[in-house]
Write a structure and sequence with these properties.
heterotrimer; A alpha+beta (about 375); B alpha+beta (about 350); C mainly alpha (about 325); A: about 375 residues; alpha+beta; Rossmann fold; OB fold (Dihydrolipoamide Acetyltransferase, E2P); 2 domains; five-stranded antiparallel β-sheet; 19 strands; B: alpha+beta; 18 strands; about 25% helix
Chain lengths: ~375, ~350, ~325
Amino acid sequence: MAEIRVENLHKSFGDFIAVRESSFTVRDGEFFVMLGPSGCGKTTTLRMIAGLELPTSGRILLDGEDVTFRRGAERDIAFVFQLFALYPHMNVRQNISFPLRIQRLPRREVRRRTEEVARLLRIDHLLDRPVGGLSSGDRQRVALGRAIVRRAKAFPMGEPQGALDAEFRELMCEELRLLHNRIGATTIYVTHDQIEAMSMADRICVMDRGEVLQVAPPIEIYERPATRFVAGFIGSPAMNFLPAQGRLAPGATEIRLNGATVPIPRLHAALDHPEAILGVRPEHIHIADDGPLRGSVYSVEYMGTRQLVTVDTGVGRLKVRAPNTVRVDDGDSVALAFDTRRLIVFDPASDLAVASAAFTETADG
Amino acid sequence: MAEVRLHDLTKRFAQTVAVSDLSLDIADGEFVVLLGPTGAGKTTTLRLVAGLEKPDSGRIEIAGHDVTALAPAERDVSFVFQQYSLYPHYTVYQNLAFPLRAPARRWATADIDRRVREVAALLRIESKLDNRATQLSGGEMQRVAIGRALVRTPAIYLMDEPLSSLDAKLREDLRIELKRIQRDLGATILFVTHDQIEAMTLADRIGVLSTGRLIQIGPPRTIYERPDNLYVARRLGSPQINVVAPDALPLADVPAGAHSAGIRPEDILLHCDDGIPAEVLSVEHLGVETVILLSLGETHLHTLLGSHPPLAPGSQVRIAVRPGAALFFDAAGNRIPSNLSEPTRETAYGT
Amino acid sequence: MSSGRTGTTAAHSVVDATSAGRRIAAVVVIAYALITMIPLVWILLTSFKSPPDSIAYPPKVVFEPTLEGYVNLFTTRSRQTPEYIESLGPPKTWYDALVRKRNMVITGPSRFADRYMNSVVIGFGSTFLAVALGTLAAYGFSRFRVPLKDDLLFFILSTRMMPPIAVAIPIYLMYRTLGLSDTALGMIILYTAVNVSLAVWLLKGFIDEIPREYEEAAVVDGYSRLQAFWKIVLPQARAGIAATAIFCLIFAWNEYAFALLLTSGEAQTAPPFIPLIIGEGGLDWPAVAAGTTLFLLPIVIFTVLLRNQLLRGITFGAVRK
């Protein structure tokens, strides 16, 4: 098992910069998820780590050893291309043992390790079946088995196919995570799906336009996003961004929003820009009798235990996640109150979050 | 707009029965969503209504007329496909005008122009009218596809997972738009999806399909809170409802003949002093919610919490079930109605 | 041949070509292209040589270009005494002058233009028919439940497996009986029959790739099946139709064996005609080269015009499946 250090990694294709001066460390035994929209550079970064692509500059260290210019095969890293691509003409055993047979290991060794992996994945009873008749869950386990049988130091996983139905994806994520809990291999998983990232990661690395924006555990990313992009990308429905008045001094505890005054967590830094952006998650807005912001209900969506209320206000259209005990209808006029401790102020010039008590105090609830 | 009635529709493809004795009445102006996994017969049902398939038996009525034997063009329906919905060799304008230029209709050019611009405005794609269909983003494409259905006012709009190829944020927006437009126009829509959120948020009534049969139909709240059987209970809710033996957990009022109990993840309470012990297997922080996988010996349970409990795999907790929240099912999987008044659900966690 | 890919051992690690590898690959590709072009360039050069230059040994690469080959291609000439040529007065045109230098006079046009027109009519005519019939048949096979579909498709393909010359004698006898020998119609029918199997198979692939949903949407919107075919399927199959048309045209244009066997006078196409252009004392090589050059032109132009469609057409199935 291994620690992977990425230092000032940079990759350009002609004029296009795919990855810009990125640095982060994947800790030994960690489930590390690289998250970002398509084209953000996450897959290129992964390919450089796996040795499928050479960086323009920067270094990659595997357990302290510089492997930047080593070929993929010399890195002791098992790249999992697609979790679902199996060789259809081979049975389960042949599929799993394929990487070992390529290495020309002794037959007995191949057999022992294949069966060990199959037991670990609980598919030992399927070893001599053709892969054709397997359920999708079992197929995925076989593909995983083929990846882990090499006992590589780390597992970079490319984005699994997006066309799977939601139910199966959920199942697959849980399975992967449980497997990781059992074997503890350093895993780097690439996805554009924030729910997948949130549910599996020990830490998430959020990228956009080739830049690493934040590396932190899921709750941290969710509650204390470093930039407006991170805040907007994580969470569904997305965080609401409201235009507010800027020029705030350190220590400020209020912000002006469309004529109303809204209390915010104490700022630790100044915001010089004349405008500010107030970020508030749908679950931190409450439909109340009284509140600083008024609006009219645009739509109400029932979602089982919760409902999603869309409200048109003077500062734009907001999404509110409300308990379904709150009864509102389209067109109703409502007041909105905010959960003060959870509001985040962003600087419109840099898109960075302004340091505040929201980042230093834990606000659980 | 008009009401649509399906009577005992059956459709076979070679050996497989795609749709089996399906009956469904869709009221004028109603939004009905058919929910089911791949292969449940949702799309076939839609195609039968459109006339793209002929039923082996059964009858379809639109506005009181039997249309079973009519060709698609004669049925006064419009269809939004999951993908490939726009003609790539046409501009957006030509795509929108296409149904109006049909020989069956022969609208005057001026009327077509007026209608196309009206619908484009409604869907906020006026600026894209001269673009080729292939130059649009996924969201715009699907909007044009819906627009192509809206230029006409047919008896019923048939929609086959029109939002499924879009990313999550766009899907949320279009969902709200679609519902608004439907209400404003008073349109009758039969919509097919495998996405439970879409079904719950859009539908006046949800019809749950399995292997060609309509298992249950009713308002979303009824389907979620009082599913007729285990299959329906499993179709709605994420994570899925926990199904356990009735004696696996301390449950009150277990009715006679109960073979299994269904407990929604949000109805499992943690940290109850008099609860039973369980071990945490995994903790997934999903931002607003946390999903915890628990093990009680052989039984695995998902719970859904609003807060971020300081739990890690291996932690021991004591758990209980919210009183009255359990659903009971008999050996055949049918729900045994509770003799208590049906529970009204309140949110289980701080939203 | 050296590939541009650096060797790897593990199953899943494929490293992109290095720049050195890429350079080697480029050199190989360019060298190959040059080698394949040498005969074509030689033909082009020969068409501008004088007859003595064309048969000079060692071969001449540098020479004085002349249009003699082209003039000879289009004319018939006879040798006359210098006195007779003198008596004709000064030459009226540049080509008269060119011919008289060799003590010849032009006695009339050659039959090359006729042969060439035959090639155009037969080549394009059979291509049009094969593609039109092929599109309709391919659409039918692609969209309808045809009884014995797989067997029929195999049968159609199997006509392509037999070397055409194996049926040369039966066809010759048949054509003679039917009066189709040495007629443009006969040749068009023959080439269409050979090409239609290729057209059906290629086009079925292309049409299979066009989602049915497009037509179904049109049908629900009030169009008939034929209208949907015309407005929706045909425009989208354009790339495939273009690619198919080129393949058919190339076959019909270049076909030699049947043309030699079945045509001699009226309907003779260019391929059997060109090699038989006789000059004084043997083949008139510059004229043969000029004929070949002109003969190549339509295909080159057609291919260049349709090259975008063609590239899309050829890679169509490969990328999507």
